[in-house]
């Protein structure tokens, strides 16, 4: 069911005559209902919103950005939020990469149609390559094309010397990821997903990676998760699976 913030945002957007905002919040309520197992209600609400959008001439790609997307409290120290306006034609891509990104964007824009057939869009991307090859720019373009906020995870504040604290902070991020649809960028993800077989590995790093993998496996949100690294050889092999299968994509 809708949260208090969502109910207030619905009332305010209706009072202000802000239809795009009203539809965006309603779609978030539908996503929350779907995660709670209320699939029939969620689909009925999505269908109603899409019908209203068509009646009012709104485009299907209206941004799902709501006023309370700004991280607050402890979460504010873990995430930086921006609202990119970058577009796909701002990138210079090879034909293969261009096709892959266009495919991800198409599936994201057609996620409601896919849901009617029991399918979900690609929503996990692992970007690898040397510095300056456009990994962060790609995340900005995906957020801009989909009209979503870009949340950059600050790993310097996530990682602590206490495993329990790190896992708790990761849980906060994944809770936010489920609550507010957006593009979530884990840059330099090798800090979280280093090879557990490395000679200089310590038990603490293994436990952090295990927590990260568990959160990825449990995540059923509608957010897009992007992990990026300059050093793919440092990644643990287990980290590649969520980005190759289960609606994932490895872009090198």
Task: Give an overview in words.
- The chain is globular.
- The protein contains 10 helices and 6 strands.
- A 6-stranded mixed β-sheet has the order 1-3-4-5-2-6.
- Mean pLDDT is about 80; it is low at about 60-70.
- About 50% of the residues lie in helices and about 10% in strands.
- Helix 1 packs antiparallel against helix 2 (about 20-35), helix 2 runs antiparallel to helix 3 (about 40-55) and helix 9 (about 165-180) packs parallel to helix 10 (about 205-220).
- The N and C termini lie far apart (about 40 Å).
- The chain folds into 2 domains: about 5-55, no CATH class; about 70-250, Rossmann fold, CATH 3.40.50.
- It has helices at about 5-15, 20-35, 40-55, 75-80, 95-110, 110-115, 135-145, 155-160, 165-180, 205-220; strands at about 80, 125-130, 150-155, 185, 225-230, 250.
- The protein is an alpha/beta fold and about 250 residues long.
- Strand 4, helix 10 and strand 5 (about 225-230) form a beta-alpha-beta unit.
N-to-C CA distance: 40 Å
Question: Helix tally?
Answer: 10
- pLDDT average, as an integer? 82
User: In what range is the share of β-strand residues?
Assistant: 5-15%
What is the overall shape? globular
Number of domains: 2
Largest sheet: 6 strands, mixed
Relevant CATH superfamily of the largest domain? P-loop containing nucleotide triphosphate hydrolases
The gyration radius over C-alpha positions equals 18 Å
Helix share, percent: 40-55%
Question: Could you say what the CATH topology of the largest domain is called?
Answer: Rossmann fold
The low-pLDDT segments are 58-68
């Amino acid at each position: 069911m809708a949260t208090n913030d969502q109910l207030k945002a619905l009332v305010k957007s209706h009072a202000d005559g802000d239809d795009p905002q009203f539809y965006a919040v309603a779609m978030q309520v539908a996503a929350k209902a779907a995660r709670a197992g209320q699939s029939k209600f969620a689909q009925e609400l999505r269908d109603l919103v899409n019908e209203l959008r068509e009646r009012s001439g709104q485009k299907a790609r209206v941004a799902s950005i709501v006023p309370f997307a700004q991280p607050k409290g402890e979460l504010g120290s873990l995430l930086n939020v921006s609202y990119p306006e970058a577009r796909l034609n701002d990138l210079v891509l090879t034909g293969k990469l261009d096709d892959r990104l266009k495919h991800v964007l198409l599936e994201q824009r057609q996620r409601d149609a896919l849901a009617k057939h029991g399918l979900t869009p690609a929503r996990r991307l692992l970007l690898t390559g040397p510095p300056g090859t456009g990994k962060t720019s790609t995340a900005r373009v995906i957020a801009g094309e989909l009209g979503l906020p870009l949340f950059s995870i600050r790993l310097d504040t996530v990682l602590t010397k206490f495993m329990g604290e790190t896992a708790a902070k990761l849980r906060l991020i994944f809770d936010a990821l489920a609550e507010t649809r957006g593009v979530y960028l884990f840059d330099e993800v090798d800090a979280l997903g280093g090879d557990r077989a490395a000679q200089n590995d310590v038990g603490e790093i293994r436990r952090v990676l295990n927590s990260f993998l568990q959160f990825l496996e449990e995540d059923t949100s509608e957010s897009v998760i992007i992990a990026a690294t300059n050093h793919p050889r440092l990644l643990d092999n287990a980290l590649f699976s969520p980005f190759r299968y289960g609606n994932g994509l490895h872009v090198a």
